[in-house]
Design brief:
The chain has 178 residues and is of the alpha/beta class. It has one domain (2-177): Rossmann fold (3-Layer(aba) Sandwich). It has 9 helices and 4 strands, in the order βαβαααααβαβαα. It has helices at 7-18, 49-61, 63-73, 81-92, 96-108, 112-115, 135-144, 160-163, 165-177; strands at 2-5, 27-30, 122-127, 149-153. A 4-stranded parallel sheet has the order 1-2-3-4, with helices on both faces. Helix 1 links the parallel strand 1 and strand 2. Helix 2 packs across helix 3 (63-73) and helix 3 packs across helix 4 (81-92). It is globular.
Length: 178
């Protein structure tokens, strides 16, 4: 079972395309930043290129602020400062150069062709209040992956694994075991 969260969802989809899903019996996408994180002339969904460029610039000039901003945008429900700090520290533990390169990849990659390459049961779990990856992107994933199941957590943001912890765990385990 291949599971991808956020940018990892786009990477999982690219794997399914390049390697024809070799060894994968099920795909689970969690708040996946796919198929395109940034808008294009023929794809008006996702963040604007200017918004992504601002993120890249902040990664280059004040990465701690970028990580703090991101950790505060993860959730739709209130969490303690300790939880926010935990996620900020996770983001800070990544490579600075890697963070910049991820921003560039999010701006440049176009994964629309990856969606049709999924030929295993696929579950798309998305937070209805996600301000990082729009609901429109989750709908596009669902329409582009034949037979996929879209599950929306109504009180979750991008941090779906934590906003509605018990509900997420139940849905995730059900998808894994189905």
């Amino acid at each position: 079972i291949l599971v991808g969260f956020s940018m990892g969802g786009a990477i999982a989809l690219r794997y399914m395309n390049i390697y024809k899903g070799f060894g994968v019996c099920k795909l689970i996408l969690l708040s996946a930043a796919a198929p395109c994180f940034a808008q294009r002339s023929d794809f008006p969904y996702g963040k604007t290129v200017e918004e992504v460029n601002s993120l890249i610039n902040l990664a280059e000039t004040d990465r701690p602020q970028l990580c703090l901003n991101f950790s505060k945008q993860l959730f739709a429900s209130p969490h303690s400062d300790a939880v926010i700090d935990w996620f900020r520290n996770i983001a800070l533990s990544a490579s600075g150069l890697g963070t910049i390169k991820c921003g560039i990849a999010l701006r440049e990659e176009d994964g629309r062709k990856d969606l049709s390459c999924v030929r295993v049961p696929a579950f798309i779990i998305h937070g209805d209040k996600d301000i990082i990856v729009s609901n429109e992107l989750a709908e596009i994933q669902h329409k582009g992956i034949c037979g996929s199941k879209l599950i929306t957590l109504s009180n979750s943001g991008h941090g779906i694994t934590y906003d509605e912890l018990e509900k997420f765990n139940s849905i995730f385990l059900s998808a894994v075991n189905s």
